[in-house]
Amino acid sequence: QVQPVESGGGSVESGGSLRLSCKASESTFNGLCVGWSRQTPGNAREGIAVIESDGSTGYADSVKGRFTVSRDPATGTVFLQMDRLKSEDTGMYFCASGPPYYRCGYRGRAYNIWGQGTQVTVVS
């Protein structure tokens, strides 16, 4: 079983950048979609970005143009580059993977294995 492990969260000023990483413990994400979801204060968890097993990507409107999801082919690590951060981006960010060769979409409904999350705090 592929267990995602997130890292890279922290505190940053509004307008700044952070890069989150997601590694698979004891395996790789080969053939799997990998996505990012977040839970912001007072809101339900929402899917924001995905990289499919074929390398295509998808984004929620709230992050499109500011966030970029990518995969390192050498290590299989998936990254979420977050630029022009806003205070409303503050929340817990989760990495998750889906069934083999399944096209997941960014909303996250197909994800079946979740990481523990990493906190992102954007201060004004």
Question: Would you write up a description of this structure?
Answer:
The chain has strands at residues 3-7, 10-13, 18-25, 34-39, 46-51, 57-59, 67-71, 78-82, 91-97, 113-114, 118-123. The radius of gyration is 13 Å and the shape is globular. Strands 2, 4, 5, 6, 9, 10 and 11 form a seven-stranded mixed beta sheet that branches. Strands 1-3-8-7 form a four-stranded antiparallel beta sheet, with no helix packed on it. It has 124 residues and is mostly beta strands. A hairpin with a 5-residue loop joins β5 (46-51) and β6 (57-59). Helix content is 0%, strand content 46%. It has no helices and eleven strands.
SSE blueprint and pairings:
Elements: E1 3-7, E2 10-13, E3 18-25, E4 34-39, E5 46-51, E6 57-59, E7 67-71, E8 78-82, E9 91-97, E10 113-114, E11 118-123
Parallel strand pairs: 2-11
Antiparallel strand pairs: 1-3, 3-8, 4-5, 4-9, 5-6, 7-8, 9-10, 9-11
